[in-house]
Description:
The protein has 14 helices and 6 strands. It has helices at residues 2-19, 27-42, 47-54, 58-65, 73-83, 87-99, 105-109, 115-126, 145-154, 159-172, 190-194, 200-213, 264-280, 284-299; strands at residues 129-134, 183-189, 219-224, 238-242, 249-253, 258-261.
Amino acid sequence: MRGTSTSKVDEKDQRRRQTMPKRPATVRARGLGTELRELREKSHLTTREVARRLGWSASTVSRTETGQRNVSSEDVAALLALYGVTGEERDRLLTLAREADQPGWWETRHPGLPSQLTALIGFESQAAQITDVALVVLPGLLQTADYARAVINAAGIPPMQAETRVATRLGRQAALSRPKPPQYRAILDEAVLRRPIGGRTTMAAQLRHVLTITERPNVEVMVVPYDQGAHPGLAGSFVLLTFPKAPAIVHLEHKRSSLFLDQPGDVTAFIKAADLLQDVAFDPIRSAEFIASVANEYES
């Protein structure tokens, strides 16, 4: 009898998943899921035991804990009751549940943006640390409007969409100056500085802009010089984001698509690559001097 009941729950949950739009989990949803998983583990309960007590499927519990499921405050209240959570902690988690899927400015102002881009902006807005490894162009969080426009136009984006992309890229940069901003580290291959995107005047202004941003206490930029030869970043550019209450993720971007990696083994490989790159790059002070020298070359 219990098996039949569980089977019906699984079928119902599967139908609900098939009708739900696929989207990357938001940072707030992932953070809430992480806290719920920690509470379950403190209660010495398995996902199957929680599912049995609440009449859910084990997959529903699992997807709630990974942030992949649209969870209601009622569902969270049921979990908190099961885990014995009361008082201010209960109120805080219920508030987080109600806010988990609220849209940010990037979702309400520019609904035509690719879903992966809107997800990246959401992750950047919540990250505690961001590491940008760039081999081809400067990271979006460091770009000026003219430089961004040149990059986007070169990709063949229609003019109307291009201006939206430029505005969105500049809007993303607010993440670096928000209250309690993330620690931001950009590791640039020298080729990024040498490619005159938008022309010499645009590049000179762009590099001066980078130098201005590095004056912020939460920002550091490091350059891997040509003389280094082969280095761990040659496999491709990537963005590594870490969060206070959610697992780290890696963002990979290609011409027509992008990808988020969140499996611990995958993420660890990129963490090691970033650390190895930092070891072979100029330190932030030497990097600033180098960037200034390249800007002087463009200006002359």
